[in-house]
Design a protein that fits this description.
Layout (H helix, E strand, L loop, with lengths): L3 H9 L5 E10 H10 L11 H8 L4 H19 L7 H4 L1 E5 L5 E5 L1 H10 L3 E8 L3 E9 L1
Antiparallel strand pairs: 1-5, 2-3, 4-5
Helix pairs in contact: 2-4, 3-4
């Protein structure tokens, strides 16, 4: 039987292990050029309907699309999923809030891999400036 400080510490805390991490950066100019060619639609692969609706609300939609893409790519890297088709990107959905934060929802293969890895928490951080957008994803068990 354990006693003292160690017993309190071990009974009050659980051990969290990082089981995956991924990082990605994208040039916002590249996204602007793609958007200038034609508007994106969900059936074209990368973004879900709700992501498209959210990104199109802004006058600076390229910034938001770039941030979403970087978060998706970072999540797929953290999960160790090689992108076979554009549909892989729709399996990671970026859920923004009004405070400028976001969370990720995993579906399909992304969800299955996260379950195999024992993932209980997905953390995402997104950053951007005039030229680049980046994201880091950490998976914890």
């Amino acid at each position: 039987m354990q006693s003292g400080l160690f017993a309190r510490w071990s009974s009050e805390r659980s051990c969290t292990v990082i089981v995956g991490s991924g990082i990605d950066f994208i040039d916002i100019g590249r996204v602007e050029r793609e958007l200038a060619r034609k508007p994106w639609a969900p059936e074209q692969g990368i973004f879900t309907s709700s992501e498209i609706d959210f990104c199109n609300l802004s006058k600076k939609s390229a910034l938001l699309y770039a941030a979403c893409f970087a978060a998706k790519e970072a999540a797929l890297k953290a999960l160790g999923i090689e992108v076979q088709t554009l549909a892989c990107f729709r399996e990671v959905e970026v859920l923004p809030d009004l405070k400028g934060n976001c969370a990720l929802r995993l579906r399909g293969q992304a969800q299955a891999v996260s379950e195999q890895l024992g993932v209980h928490r997905v953390s995402v951080a997104v950053t951007m400036n005039k030229r680049l957008s980046g994201a880091m994803v950490v998976l914890e068990s």
